[in-house]
Amino acid sequence: MQSLVAPSSVVLPNLNGFHLRQTLQCGQCFRWREISEGVFEGVVRNAVCRASMQGTSLVLDGATEEDFTRVWRCYFDLDTNYDAVRLALAAYPPLADAVRYAGGIRILRQDGWEALATFILSQNNNIVRITGIVARLCETFGQPLPGGYHAFPGPAQLAGLTPEDLAPLRAGFRARYLLDAACRVQSGDVDLTALSSLPLSQARAMLMRIVGVGPKVADCALLFGFYRLECFPVDVWIARALREVLPDGLPASLLPVAGIAQQMLFHYMRTCPERPTGV
DNA sequence: GCCCAGGCAAACT
DNA sequence: AGTTTGCATGGG
Q1: Which of A13, A45, A150, A171 is the most exposed place for a label (fewest CB within 10 A)?
Q2: Do A81 and A160 meet the contact criterion of CB atoms below 8 Å apart?
Q3: A46-CA/C1-C1' distance, Å
Q4: Does strand C come within 7 Å of the CB of A167?
Q5: Which of A16, A110, A15, A7 is CA-nearest to residue A50?
Q6: Strand C bases, protein C-beta under 7 A
């Protein structure tokens, strides 16, 4: 196992306010595993690394310089100033507690197809089980990588399969949704490359052509897979709480970073022990 | 057994 | 066009 990770590492200093566990376990991504206290192992775009914090530095063990410039720099969105975002969000009183509790979250720039697929699998499901289904999906259909890891299977690798083929995933009724997404992406009916720049309403409409993709999954895919920070995914679970916290929605000044606010609120309301669920 | 989980499709009024 | 119900699976 020790030779599975390339003998190099990358250190990213001065990540003030960054919280690795919050970021990787807040429910925006499903491909990281905490292998020991504070150490996470993950696969992103055919690259593997072990991530941990040393003070305010993010350490990526096993990351080559090439992987850093090709994958990790973008993935962790290191060129966005989160100090400024936190300041802006916390200045709006309804968000202050959420920023205090979950302000270490950064929105990861995930692969678009992976985000779409994993959030299709997320519906009426919980984060631990989603992670398990995604792991089985990659092990079963993903391209093998050095060290026994697997890439996330692309649309081409899933488009020809049947729901019975996906039975080992134990994804339940979501299996046929995932296959419909793969077919529509593969055929060009859904053009992922357009989703980053298309007007939001058109991007949502395109994604919702997929059976099993509604407003919530579409917004999650756009936020986490296409870096549309103006998306604010809301489901029935969070809606009741949001009406209390944000009766009038976000002020216009915060709309460009609505997705960051949403994810901090989501994590806060889900996990803060001082804020009982149900609100 | 029950209820819930990052919803949605289908079938109802 | 709004509302209700079923859905696969697993954990608490």
Answers
A1: A13
A2: no
A3: 46
A4: yes
A5: A7
A6: 7-11
Ordered DSSP codes for A96-150: HHHHHHHTT-------HHHHHHHHHHTTT--HHHHHHHHHHHHHHHSPEETTTEE
A85 catalytic residue (yes or no): no
Catalytic residue among A19, A216, A270, A275: A216
CB atoms within 10 A of CB A182: 25
Residue A3 CB in 7 A reach of strand C: no
Give Cα separations from A138 to A115, A132, A153, A245 (angstroms): 14, 10, 6, 38
Query: Measuring CA to CA, which residue among A136, A184, A196 is closest to residue A156?
Result: A184
| Residue A161 falls in which region: left (phi positive, over 0), alpha (psi -120 to 50) or beta | beta
Backbone angles phi, psi at A61, to 5 degrees: -80, 135
Q: What is the pLDDT along chain A (279 residues), one digit of tens a residue?
A: 444 445 689 999 999 999 999 999 999 999 999 999 999 999 999 999 999 999 999 999 999 989 999 999 999 998 899 999 999 999 999 999 999 999 999 999 999 999 999 999 999 999 999 999 999 999 999 999 999 999 999 999 999 999 999 999 999 999 999 999 999 999 999 999 999 999 999 999 999 999 999 999 999 999 999 999 999 998 756 676 777 788 888 999 999 999 999 999 999 999 987 875 444
Q: Distance from residue A235 (CA) to nucleotide B11 (C1'), in Å?
A: 22
Whole-model pTM: value is 0.95
Residues A100, A94 contacting (CB under 8 angstroms):
no
Answer for A81: CB within 7 Å of strand C: no
